[in-house]
Please model this.
Amino acid sequence: MGYIPDSSAQGLRTRKTRLFGLVISFMTNPIYSRVVLAIEERAHELGYDVLLAHTLNVPEREEACIRRFVARQVDGLFIAPVYRPRHRSPRYQELLNRRIPTVLLGHPAPFCSQFVHVETDDLLASYATTQHLLKLGHKRIAFFTGPLMTPWTQERFEGIAARLREAGAGCGR
Model:
């Protein structure tokens, strides 16, 4: 018959939008392309749609993206937080107050440490990567980094430095 249910009307009745918000820095970041695909596939299996927003690593833009998703009454959020050294963020506090299920993608910073998060073991990963490069015979290994103040950059550097020390190679900054 061609009938398509009105999801907005259903949302009013059930108080569920069947929407997840996904906030990442850039879709061109190769780390996020697989993450986005995995989240979207699982959401689809569960009957949810995913709304995507990019922060471009700008804290104010991240806050605007979160605000928009809250206004759309998403049923949950996935956020790769833009790092800032503050200990509080009004937008993240609002998510807690509203009890919006939120999962952080990556290391939690001080302003969002109370949220559930999924992260890589950067120390072990950089250690293993350095070990692999050394086994291939490489002697001069460069480390390209993001902001030095971030915990993940420090962990990655420490993993590289630890493996180089074990190999008897120097590690300069």
About this structure: The chain has two domains: 15-118, 122-166.
